[in-house]
Amino acid sequence: MIESSEEKTSRDFYIEYNFRYLQCPLTLNKKVKADEEIVYEPLTTLNAMVRHNRMELLNHPVCKEYLLMKWMAYGFRAHIMNLGVYSLGLIPLTLLITRIRPGISSNATEIHQTGPLEYKDSHFIRVCMCLVFTMSLFGICKEIFQLFQQKLKYLLDYSNLLDWTIYTSSIIFVSSLFVNIPARLQWECGAIAVYLSWMNFLLYLQRFESYGIYIVMFWEILRTLIRIAVVFFFLILAFGLSFFVLLCSQQHYKTPLLSVMQTFAMMLGDINYHEAFLDPLLSDNLPYPFLSYAVLIVFTLLIPILLMNLLIGLAVGDIAEVQKYAALKRIAMQVNLHTNLEKKLPYWFLSRVDQESITVYPNRPRYCGFMSVFNYCFGCEDSITDTQSADTTLELEILKQKYRLKDMSTLLEKQHELIKLIIQKMEIVSEADDDSNDLFQHKFRKQQLEHMNSKWDTVLKAVKSKSP
């Protein structure tokens, strides 16, 4: 990273980012691909940083600009195209759910005979059904291709199971266009399809830096909540079965399943105290009043107060650590996206869009037209501002150290002068006055050599004594 000599506030001030240590030259990559014995992995350096959780290195301005260069070169286009293809199935599915009333089978004859929709609407619905069916088949073909390509790694990714569920339920929902199916099954699949489709849409927004980190944080907190809920489900089950035994005469606790569901609703604050406890007690319809109130008091202390505060504390209390992990995971997803794309893109395309270095002018607009609007809504944070603030902090710390060293040097000089005056007043003769320019280490070494007896001294003395 090289900064120009102009003032940082000048319009001509620029920063040059060099990526030669982050990527392998494309000409060398072509030779490596020709040699089948050598395996080349794109973005090797960044993948190593992700593998070893080097968050500081991944947040370095050069690494961030390198990922941004890859994103603007081909990652952005590929992701927008993928998002557009997905929307071709999502939008018609949403229109079908909103246009057709639940409880009516959506095959063409019944829609036209039922009467709530006009003929032009039924034609529009047929078009939407065909679009949903076509895009679902296309999605299934894509998933099968990825299964053969990724093999075991494909089965370990939960998002692939989500895609299969969406495509299967969507096909069942619109299959009444070709075959007769029960309306109940059709609308159940429609509800599952539209719910999971919009949930899956969030996964596509993870790639955009403005919102991606919050989506990743949401999924991480949800994962923590599910792990805790599995553990404390037995506590809810204990109270649910206890209320089933004590309040089985009431409609809300008539069966064990209803009792557990009512206990879950009570956990969220809907205790329904008057109808379930107070009114039956006053009308003498509560079979076990003392034990019922005892269990209610224990439930109120343990579940709405203790457990709910514990869940909130675990989900929100460690938000800084979750945000740090989410940032690392989002960068890891970006690196994984660019790695997979570079494996599939041809050499001629990469040679046109790849750059070994870029020059950024911080005081000029970086994008124009549609890209400026898109970057304002979905773009990443400006790394130039982070770099300048980091540089300012570093300069301030260096300036502080400079002043501290200057103060220490001044104090040492004053002490030196004071010691010299004391020596002069006391009329002490110091050897340092005779040889003040000689360093202590040199004098010590010199004295050591003078007093050192060499092993050849004895031999020389013997030779001299024998010589006539």
Automatic annotation (TrEMBL):
It holds the Pfam family Ion_trans. Keywords: ANK repeat, Glycoprotein, Ion channel, Ion transport, Membrane, Receptor, Repeat, Transmembrane, Transmembrane helix, Transport. Residues 132-325 form the Ion transport domain. This is Transient receptor potential cation channel subfamily A member 1. GO terms for cellular component: transmembrane transporter complex. It comes from Chelydra serpentina. Its main location: membrane. It is found in: Membrane. The chain crosses the membrane at residues 74-97, 123-141, 161-179, 185-205, 225-247, 290-316. It is a multi-pass membrane protein.
